[in-house]
User: Fold this.
Amino acid sequence: MKNVILKTNKLCKSFKSGTQEQQVLKNLDIEFYEGDFTVIMGSSGAGKSTLLYALSGMDRPTSGAIRFFDAEIADLNNDKLAVFRRQNCGFVFQQMFLLDNMSILDNILASGLLLSGDKKSIVLNAKELLQKVGLTETIWTKFPNQLSGGENQRAAIVRALINEPRVVFTDEPTGSLNSAAGKSVLDVLSDINDGGQSIVIVTHDLNSARRGNRILYITDGIIGGECNLGKYVSGDKLRHEKLRTFLSGMGW
Amino acid sequence: MNKLWMHAIANIRKTKSASGTLVVMFVIAALLLNTGLLVVINYGSFFNNLKDEIKPSNVYFALPDKIYTEEVKTYINKNKHVKNTQMNDGLVIGADILSKGEEKSFPIMFSNMDEKREMSKWKFVGEHLPAEEMSVYVPDIFKAVSGYKLNDKIKVKYRDPVTKEAKSLAFTVKGYTEDIYFSSTDTGYISFYLSEGTYQKVANILNKPEYRVHIVFANVDNMKNISVIEAGIREILHLNSASLMAADPSTMLVVIDLELIGMARTMMASMVSIMMVMFALIIVIVCLLVVRFRIVNSIEEDIMNIGSLKSIGYTSRQIILSVILQFSLIAGIGSLIGIALSYPALPSISAVFEQQSGLRWVQGFDAGISGAAFLILMVFVVLIAFVASRRISKLSPIRALRGETTSRKYKRNHLPLENAKGKVPVVLAFKSVLQSMKQNIMVIVILIAVAFSGSFGVIMYYNTAVDTKAFAEVPGMEITNAIAVLNPQKDQTEAVKTIENMDNVRKAVYLDEVKVKVEGNEVAAYVMEDYSKKETRLVYEGWYPENNNEITLAGILAQRLGKTIGDSVTVGVGKHQEKFKVVGLSNGSQMGGLNTSLLASDYGRINPSFRHQTLNIYLDKGTDAEVFINKLEDKFDKSMLLTAVNFDKGMAEGMASYQKIIAAMGLAMLIITLLVVTLVLYFLISSSLIRKKRELGIQKAIGFTTYQLMNQLSISFTVPIIIGALIGTLLGAFYTNSLMSISMKSVGVMRSGFIVNQYWIIAFGIATIVFSYLLSMLITWRIRKISAYALVTE
Assistant:
């Protein structure tokens, strides 16, 4: 029996545009489990990213509750949410969002040193993680605009991991990368998941989705279906077929 | 062109907040510049126009009835340097009159308004009513400063000069007057004009020779010859040995010429207007720096739009032109509003000056000056806009469309976090400081400018409202508490001893003021036995005379004579002449800076008839000089004590108008400084928030709180603010006196010595920094609205 790390209760999110109100998430009740590589899929505008950012405390729901381990986060104010994010969440975005005016190492340390005062171990950890994702010492002092997209995204993953978050949230991490760079990023994510790291990913990319062990499909703000693929094994063709069949059933 | 206008206006609309701030800054700059230029150029000419209208004589000699002789009248009338004369009589009293609830002393001269006066006429200002019994027409300052309205009663209190009995006269104000010589509290008499009937009535009441004065107006062939004529009068009347400063008014010759009255009545306005223009220029420079900053930033912010425009065929020249149009429009609107606002502000400024000058300066719209102020601002804005936007021509459309600016390329990783000490937000703030050197230099320059003018304002305010000692020294008089004018014909030894032994007397020292000729020029001379007993040290180079035949010259006199320390000058009275060695140069505006200091023993040699007369009495701190003078007058009869002067009161009243003007100016500079700091910071931080929106969003996403980010941004601005405020404040502390020396040179202050109170200056510097930091925190409060979620969804 897996531990529940995230649980929503009647989660709703709506956006106002002029006089019109669009309800994106509709009374969602979902659970997320420790150690899972959860993939959220769905058509454009279905509410995937909205769900991800509500779960991670980047945005507040319109109504409903979100329990993150033992904490209720839906009602936290902005600053408490910021502290919650730094303590519990790691983020990997499609556009990387590294700070342009800082070196790669500083981008990671700016996040790490925000939480921990133990500079020595943070620096050591950052360097180890950078090595681990294949970023060698020569590029640690470089600025983001001097690196390739893949390198930047791997650096962003290290930044997400530096505080040993309970969950890594990632939104289309390979969306702006070529296939080779995308694969290397997904390999890193699979590796860290193998190490026990919980990951929640939003994607519409099959290659990314295949890495997950649990697929949630959102349709019009509700969970339309769920598919369990089991642990990712490279070259598992059956897994791919199972995913395709599931997605076809969902109208993908 | 229409399209370019469209772009310019669209850009202004898009950046309403920044454009609005710039407009406000140009309003302030134009207001100050136009006001300063109007005062500098027109105040003096307003006085000249008044001269043209009233046609005052070149000089007037006021001869009290007690010393007046037919011989003097004939001497003046027949003097070869005198072209024509007219004599009018008046009645003079030292009066106490209520002025806005406070009793003040005025040297009042009652004049018969129905007496024919062809030279030095006077005129009514504003509405006036027909004369009735005991009605009076008073100088306009009694309306503007003292608050007397038409039909108000005005009570004139005075003391009988012989019996010392307190008396008073009551009049009804029926109108206000203006003339060149008798309207200002600073020079000579203030004239109250009475109808024939009222004048005769008052003359019957003031029926003693001590009240009567004969005013001889004269036009001369050359203004320089006035001192020759005056010397002749003094010789006839044997007035050379008489003290000039504190002598019995009923035996004192008063000579006021047109140059002196012009300088006295416009001096304050000239001084203040120089400060205003300098301050305005500082604000203009700040505005231009901000414009440059805004343009550079807007190019970065709008880089993709610029790329789009280029890609659809707009030339760089057209885009640059639209930038110039945008900022010219902002500057133009602000400048026009500022210039328009300066006109309603002028009457208040005129009223402030009127306290000292007695001139009701009415300034209509001056197209020439306002046009020049507008053009100055616009030309600089166009130039700055052109220079700052030139880089647009270097941008290729594709690079611009990609958002590649030419300026934002990080090459050096300042303060690597791995090695840096301190909390992350603070280290990141310092990183930002090191990465934004151009912006920092601009902030530093702006803060230097505003902190300099602010500390200048603080020093001015301190010297006029808190510790007025240095300000009181400006006229160059010895500051004492009371002055006893003793009878020079009597042995004063016992009297002086008695005064020295009176309660609360700290010291009693002779300091006479006489007239001598230095290199043939008639000048005022201070005479003392021992200058070490002088408490007001006005020598700015060298020292006061210590040995025989040493002399200290006022700076202006030394300049005029081309003499300096070590040179020798000829000093004489009548036919007695001796060579003196110049040992010091001093400040002092007495006789327009034509004054000198001599040892009593030396002066006694060149003027053997000299006897001490003026005894400066220094009282213990807190002693009421008025009470002391009453005791003094009780102790000595009229044969020994000719008169006693309450120096404390005279000084306070004499300086009050100057203090009010300078204190108001200092305070205004301080307030404007803070306002400009507020606007500049609001502008810079707002721009920075727009520029750093992405960066701040990322930081929020990874867990930085709003407070941490506010602090980070505020600290990054506070570092250059500290540097700028420090340099500006130090410059203010060290150079305020140099600046004041420039603006007061014309009045005899060659090296001003205003007190620079280190605690006030340090407090101002710290206050500026703390104010800027708190303001930054307040402005960066907007960071709370920057959402991490918006970053990823936009």
